[in-house]
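Hey,
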Amino acid sequence: MIQLVPMTQRAQAPALSQQLVPASQCLLAVQSGRSLSDVLPQVPSAQRPGVQALVFHALRQAGMTAALVKLLANRAPSPPVRALLQLALALMPELSADEGAPHYSAHTLVSQAVQAAKTAHDTQAQAGFVNACLRRFQREAAALLVQAGRHPEARWNHPAWWVRRVQQDHPQQWEAVLAASNRPGAMALRVNRRHGSREAYLQRLTAAGLPARAAGDGYGVLLDHGVPVERLPGFSDGDVSVQDLAAQQAAPLLLAGHDSQQRLRVLDACAAPGGKTAHLLEHADVDVLALDKDAQRCERIHDNLRRLRLAAQVRAADAARPADWWDGKPFDAILLDAPCTASGIVRRHPDVRWLRREADVAQLAHQQRVLLDALWPLLRPGGRLVYATCSVFRAEGSDQVKAFLERHSGARAGVAPGHLLPGLPEAGGQFNDNDPGEHDGFFYACLEKATT
């Protein structure tokens, strides 16, 4: 297990070298196959935001910096040295020009990276090597970047197999999708319609000094700058939730045309952490059964519902095994936000692209098929199942649904957004003109069951 080196608690911001040590160790952990969500909590809370910013940027440049290390080093460095070099290279002015990226002078970076190398046990003996590689990059940056950029993984900062798949799936938009996937996502909010209007909440944000604008449907908001949730007015009281604009389409799509006089029985089949469960309950008076295989993740559903003052039945169960939990009563509506590669949310989780393997796509597509076939019999005639994935891959979206419709003659495809691609406005025009592409990659299909 990789242990993060604790940083000294100081009243002022730590020196860059002090941040580079745990940041490079977090990067190494991801390269070793660990999720950044599991590693970051080991960094002292006071230092975590700065370290996270460094690691996020390094992950967004990891394809390019890996290629540069190969060009700069006559021999393959040890993994800890390689991670430190990649982190320092990512922060060089030539690779940190994007808005929101940390900015340091090349001189400062070299000095602080060498100091960081001297600090950590795994890199002490290679401090001179780190210094030589970074100084060579300073001298030859332009030529090295051109040479490295000839490789797709370096050019697009995604695995080569990922680049190929996006090219095949979206031949007209693939470059825009990859470019957008490498930019940080805007912080999107969903106003709790049971607690007040979007217009009133926008006024509260203005009063709190948090510039924002309306976006998406009637309750979506985009902040100009992300902030900790504690700064959001009324967050602890359930007045607002953090939810991407694409994810905010699930509840309205599932409940479209719902007669408010009829109380629907709804299944949220893969519900944790509960954002869509809560949105369903905010949107209409419905009875929701929220399932998740992981009991600990079910606690996150409970936490979300308590904060929002909402109630649902929550069970730890495998949605693919209805015999273990279903009472035999058909559901009026089913939301299946299926497990997927998460290829659409790499703006917010830049480690995902480096943790996934090409074989995962087929494995997850099989899991999605199993879930669809298991849940379809639970839907009443005339009912609606919304299938969703936070993926840009067609194998987890349109191809999956096409195969499902071929297997089930009693199913038909209703009106749905289909593939929502980051960096591109929705073709159906459901997003307003102020937020073109300001959403994660997502897929939605609406499957309706025949009445006879």
